[in-house]
Specification:
Largest sheet: 4 strands, antiparallel
Strand content: 5-15%
Strand order of the largest sheet: 1-2-3-4
Distance between the termini: 120 Å
Structural class: alpha+beta
Number of helices: 12
Helix content: 40-55%
Radius of gyration: 62 Å
Length: 417
Amino acid sequence: MSLKQPVAPLSPQACIGPLLPALAPGAVSSVPPQAVLHLLSPVLRQRVQLLSSDNPEPWIRLLCWRLAEASRLNSIVTASANLEPHPSSGEIEIDWNSDISEQFRYFDEETLEAMVMMWELKLAFRLVYGPGSEWFIAEVLPAPMGEPYTDFRGFCNIHDAQEGFENRSGAGKGLAAAKSRQQHQDDNDNDDDNNDDSDDYWARYDATPGAAGSRAPADGAMPAGTRTPIGTGTTAEDAYFAQYDSVQPAMDPHDPDEASPPPASQPKSSEPDFGFVQRREEKSIRTSVSAARARHQLGSMGAIPEEAEEKTDNNNTGGGTLDKVLKNGLSMVNGLRSHLVYPRPMSTSGSDGSGVIDKLEDVAETEETCKASVRRHISVSIRSLADLASAAGIDGVEFRRLVLEELEDGDLDYVEV
């Protein structure tokens, strides 16, 4: 149902009147009469039908959704004398014009409700406008002890209820819109605060030391206050990141470029170059050997006196002779030769033929094993055939004759005839 659709007027006598005679019997009975079920709303009707089937309690307690109110309702109906039918007419006497009051409200855009107070009976009926443009009983309650309609908060007629709902909906929408705008404004403020914090963070990179700063720009670096101009051939992003080349964080005053000495001032390593020493010794040995060999040849020709040769040898070799030099060279050659690995043949050098004998023995042993296996197989096969013949009723003589005939017909030489 929409707000724009027409609503049938409420007739409490038509909606509630048929239910009143069934309330008093319902206070002691657990089975509701079928004549009153069509007066209930679909939800309440389903509740009464399902729960009354297995519930020994009075069924009118199911007309109230709250447990405490259901107990009061049962007590009021049981103690009320106004719910007894008139002896002559058989109806409950109710002044439908003065003994009742009603209010209406829209619970939502699709649900129209009415609250009917029956002060003489101390009962309240909540009605709902449902399918088929009819009013149905949604709940039966005991009348409130204090101010009526405190929880319902309805209007005197349907038109006022419709306007009240529209005003309430418009105010709710305006409140929701205002809340949404406030939330949006708060989000923008938070974004601005975050941007300010971010700007403060990145602004620290632009902070440079003043005249009394504790560090100076590194060699080859741009001065701190210098900014790369954005001109032809460069982009704003390149110029922005180029500024980091001349900035050092204030939290790290140590500059590795300034602290490290130039390469020329670094001390030389005190560790000796063993490769260079070895090459120098080898060159000295080769030179001494060549000089000694040349002096020996010249001495044999008589070009150099023996005393001069001995003196020269002492000067060049530190008191050694040609034999000592040659001995040192040979010892070095032998030392290198001891580390050489020569290839060796994989075959054995023995000529006694022991490998051939072992191989022949292995072949003979294999043949003997094969023969033993064949004999065992023949024996088992013959025994199996004998058992088969015995099971078939063939005696041993006939079985032997059959085997011999097979051997003879097969031209086999194993049988001696």
